[in-house]
Amino acid sequence: xxxxxxxxIGTGVMGFYMCEHLIKAGYHLTxxxxxxxxxxxxxxxxxxxxxxPKQVAEASQIICxxxxxxxxxxxxxxxxxxxxxxxxxxxxxICDFTTSTPTLAKNIYEEAKMKGVRTLDCPVSGGDVxxxxxxxxxxxxxxxxxxxxxxxxxxxxxxxxNLMGGAxxxxxxxxxxxxxxxxxxxxxxEGLLYAQRSGLDPTEVLNxxxxxxxxxxxxxxYWPRVxxxxxxxxxxxxxxxxxxxIVCEECDKMGIVLPGVQxxxxxxxxxxxxxxxxAEMGTQALIKVLEKINKKE
Length: 297
Ligand code: NAP
What we know:
The chain has 14 helices and 9 strands. The protein is of the alpha/beta class. Strands 1, 2, 3, 4, 5, 6, 7, 8 and 9 form a 9-stranded mixed beta sheet that branches. α6 (about 100-115) links the parallel β5 and β6. The model has no long low-confidence stretch (mean pLDDT about 95). NADP nicotinamide-adenine-dinucleotide phosphate (NAP) binds near residues 125 and 239. The site of NADP nicotinamide-adenine-dinucleotide phosphate has 29 residues, from α1, α4, β7, α7 and α12.
């Protein structure tokens, strides 16, 4: 393999676009996803389909992963029969972009090291728009040498990429990101409900305040989606509850309490469990919970 062969596992909302950018940049991609139909368009662009994460690894030197939950990452990487590590060769790099736990990132790093395989935990932020427009923020944990080798790929998918420390540091940084977003999303949806109930035009309110001190990614991207009645993902509610649970678990380990994150976890768990179809909606659907709490008589 003279050219760098890239493997990709997980072609959902985020993975699809990230993978597409690499193919369009001229890389050879070998891909796998649980549901093949979500990879068909990438196969059409020239990606080679194989039937397991292990086969992806066998055909690749750099294996990228963008699946949903930590248990998906564990299975994709560590499954002894069909997992990535079972198919890796010495010198390969496994780069996990999934938002997962710092502990799992460290476990995978240690397991891989025994085979001479390098790993990076590289969760991203920037949403579906950031993935589509190759403007992701990439937060990395692992060894500098592996990070440096990934930079050409990061440049194709992202706007910023930073090595934050050893294995797990990327996931800790993403936990900080989600801590900030937790209260921001509550603020955006509460502001919108206030605007509506006070008789203001929500679009005019966004024009008025969107460039001031209240400006944020969540405000500019998600407010207009709610105004249009678009509650589709974007960023799945089920994934945000997963992220907020990770933050709370890490806080427990550190012996700290973050009331904003706890409140967001409570509200988003209500959305996931008590609003029909809530788990599969986008995070802007929090408006549904606020409407339920503030039902008009
Ligand atoms: P998604 O659309 O659900 O994509 C995940 C993909 O991984 C799905 O296509 C899924 O297959 C596949 N997958 C899961 N387990 C697998 C397995 N064992 N083997 C093979 N494929 C498997 O989710 P997403 O929105 O792209 O998010 C992916 C990750 O990025 C999550 O951890 C999320 O928290 C994080 N993230 C998302 C956003 C966002 O705005 N969407 C932003 C930043 C970070 P199926 O097609 O069968 O479901």
